[in-house]
Amino acid sequence: MSLGSSEPQTVALPSRLTSEELEVARLIVSSLSLEVAAEEIDPEAPLFNQGLGLDSIDALEIALALSKAYDVKLRSDDERNHRIFASLRSLTAHIEKHRAR
Amino acid sequence: MRSEAGEFIDLARNTAWPLIPRSPEEVICFRNGQAITVGAFLAEAGALAARLPPAGQGVALHAINLCTDRYRMLVGFVAALLRGHVTLLHADPEPGRLLALAGRYPGAYVIADGEQREFPLPAFRLAEGDSAAGEVVAVPEIPVERIVAIGFTSGSTGEPAAHPKPWGALVAAAQAAAERFSLHGSGAAAVTLLATVPPQHMYGFETTIMLPLQAGMAIHAGASFFPSDVLDALAWLPTRRVLVTTPLHLRALLAEGRRPAALEAVISATAPLAASMAEAVERDWQTPMLEIYGATEAGSMASRRTVREADWLPYRGVELREAGVQVPGLGEVALADVLEPSGAGRFRLLGRRSDLVKLGGRRASLADLNRRLLEIEGVEDGVFVAPDDLESNPGARLSAYVVAPGLTAEAVLAALRTRLEPLFLPRPILLVPALPRDRLGKLSRSALAGLRVPATGPA
Q1: What SS3 state is found at B291?
Q2: Does residue B195 lie in a domain region?
Q3: B366 and B339: one domain?
Q4: How do residues B292-348 score in pLDDT, each as one tens digit?
Q5: Separation of alpha carbons B294 and B364, rounded Å
Q6: Which of A91, B213, B260, B317 yields a CA-CA distance of 20 to 30 A from A82?
Q7: pLDDT tens-digit readout, B85-128
Q8: Which of A31, A57, A61 minimises the CB distance to B423?
Q9: From the list B223, B394, B395, which residue is nearest A75 (CB)?
Q10: Shared domain check, B58 and B144
C-alpha cells in the first residue's frame, strides 16, 4: 500500500445500519409509534434519554416486541442490561446472540 | 396487639401505634433466595439508624430514600423513622432535582443502594452484609400524628406539591387494605406480595412498605420490571402470592402469553383498568382481578373487582365529601377527580376536576407543561395535547403543536428535555406556522386536529 497514491480513499461515513439493525429499528419504530424513520436511527446513539429519548414505559414495550418477534426475553437481573439498552447496535447484538429462530 | 382478625387503630383513642406489631420470627421479605425475618430486619434497620444523623434540634430531618431494592427502601424508611426523621418519597437521583428538594427541606440527606454514584447531598449507602451488624431493636410505638413520610405531586405552578403523611393515617390505610384484600395470615397462610411499582410511588409505598409493617405478610425484593422478571419471581415465591401492579405491566404480562404461578389475587392501580384486561386476567390466570382507587394526596381510598363492579367501595373509614374525601388521619382531602355517590355506599368516577394528565403513574398539569414550553427561547406559541386514550393505551403520549420559526423540532425537544420528566415529552412535536386560536385566544381540539398533516401514522 502506498501512501499518497491515487487509490480510492476510505472516507469516514456516518455509521450505517446492518440489515439486522434495520429490522430491530423498524420493530422499535412501529411498536413505539415513533415519528422517525428506522433508517435514520444512529445505531450507536443511546436509545434512552438523550438519543431516541425513550423511557421506562418504552422499555416494557420493546421487551414485549422482542419477545414476540424473536422470542428473546429481557430481564432486569441481566448484569449487562444497561449495555444491552445502550444503543441499537448493542440491543441487536444481544438479540442475535439469544434469538430462538 | 396483632391485628390478625381486626384490632384496628382508632384515631380518636390511640395516640401511638407500634412500628411493627409482628413476631420477630415471621418472614417480612424474600430476597436473593432467602427469607428475612422481622427480627433480622429490625436489627438491620437499627444498625442503619445508628449511622444516620441525630434528629435535628426541634426540626425533623428529611431522608431522600432512593433505594431501588425494595427491602433496602424498607430498611431505610424504618431506620429514618427510628431516628425521628421524615422520608421524602422521591425516586429521581438527578442532582438538580435532589438539590431543589434539599432547598425545601434543609438538612435533607440521601439513603441509596446500587451502583456507585455521586450525590450533591450527604449520602448513606446500604450494601450487602450490613445486616450482621445490628442488635435486635425494641419495637417502639410511633405517635399517630407524627409525619413520617411526604409524597409529592406535580403542582400546577411547577413546584411539586407536598403531601405529608402522619403515621396514624398510613397505619389506618394499611389495615384497611389488609382487611379489604384478606392479606393477613401466618405460617402457610401468609401472603407474599410481588410488586412492579416503585416503593417511592405512593401506591408502591402503601402496598410494599406499609403493608409488611402492619399486616402479617412478606414482600419480594428483587427485579420485577420486565414480564420475565415477574414470572420467574412468582414461580419462586411461596403461596399465597399477590401481584401488585399497573395496567401497563399487566398488558405486557398478558401479551407475553405465559401463565404465571398460581395467584391469590392481582391488584392494579394508577389508572383505570380496561374491562377486557380484567376479564383476561380472571379467565386466563384464574384469579380475582382487583383495582385500587387512590391518589398521592389521600392514599388508597377504595377498591373494586373490575369484572363485577363498575363502582368503587370505599376503604374502612373513608367517606365522600363535596370536593373530595374524608380520610382517617388526614381529614378532608381535595381530589383532582370528581366522585359521585352511586348507592350502597359506593361511588363512581366522573372525571377530572382540572387539566391533569396521567402517564405511567405520574401526573402533570397541561397548563404547567404549556408554560414550560413557552419558556423556551424561540418558541412563540405552543400547546400540549393529550389524546383521548392517554390512560388506556400504553403507546399513547402527549403531542405538542409549536410555533417556533427558526427552531427545529429536535431543538425544541432538547430544550424540553431539561424542563420535563421524560414521560411527558411530546411525541411528536408538530411545528406549525400559527395556532388556530379564536378571538378569545382559546384553542379547540377540533381546530388543532385540523393542523395535523395527513397522518403517516403506524399501521
Answers
A1: strand
A2: yes
A3: no
A4: 999 999 999 999 999 999 999 999 999 999 889 999 999 999 998 889 999 889 999
A5: 16
A6: B260
A7: 999 999 988 888 899 999 999 889 999 997 767 899 999 998 77
A8: A57
A9: B223
A10: yes
Q: Which residue range forms the structural domain that includes residue B391? A: 356-449
Cβ contact A55–B228 (<8 Å): no
- Same domain membership, residue B425 and residue B337: no
The answer on B364 and B261 residing in a single domain is no
Strands B62-65 and B109-112 turn out to be: parallel
Laid out side by side, the sheet with B429-431 consists of B381-385, B399-403, B429-431
Do B74 and B113 meet the contact criterion of CB atoms below 8 Å apart? Answer: no
Q: Determine the 3-state secondary structure of B64 from DSSP.
A: strand
- Residue numbers in B near A76 (CB within 8 A): 223-226, 229
Q: What is the pLDDT along chain A (101 residues), one digit of tens a residue?
A: 444 444 455 555 555 889 999 999 999 988 887 778 888 888 988 888 666 767 778 888 888 899 989 999 888 865 567 778 888 999 999 999 988 65
Distance from CA of B409 to the nearest CA of A (A): 11
A12 vs chain B: nearest CA distance in angstroms?
A: 25
In a domain, B10, yes or no: no
Q: How many domains does chain B have?
A: 2
Q: Do B395 and A61 touch (CB under 8 A)?
A: yes
Domain spans in chain A, listed from the N-terminal domain onward: 19-98
Tell me how close the Cα of A80 comes to any Cα of chain B, in angstroms: 13
Q: Are residue B347 and residue B366 in the same domain, yes or no?
A: no
Q: Are residue B190 and residue B55 in the same domain, yes or no?
A: yes
Shared-domain flag, residues B207 and B332? yes
Taking an 8 Å cut-off on Cβ atoms, the answer to whether B252 and A30 are in contact is no
The last residue of a domain, from among B352, B385, B417: B352
Angle at B64 between CA B63 and CA B65, to 5 degrees: 100
The torsion region of residue B158 among left (phi > 0), alpha (psi -120 to 50) and beta comes to left
Tell me how far apart the alpha carbons of residues B429 and B410 are, in angstroms, rounded to a whole number.
Answer: 9
| Dist CA B386 CA B393 (whole Å) | 12
Contact B255 A75 (CB under 8 A): no
Q: What is the CATH classification number for the domain harbouring B394?
A: 3.30.300.30
CATH 1.10.1200.10 fits A19-98, yes or no: yes
* Within a domain: B319: yes
Same domain, B322 and B192: yes
Residue B3: inside a domain: no
End position of a domain, from candidates B335, B352, B369: B352
B245 and B266 Cβ atoms separated by less than 8 Å:
yes
Give contacts of A68 with chain B, Cβ < 8 Å: 255
- In the 8-state DSSP scheme, what is residue B131? G
CA nearest to B231 within chain A: A75
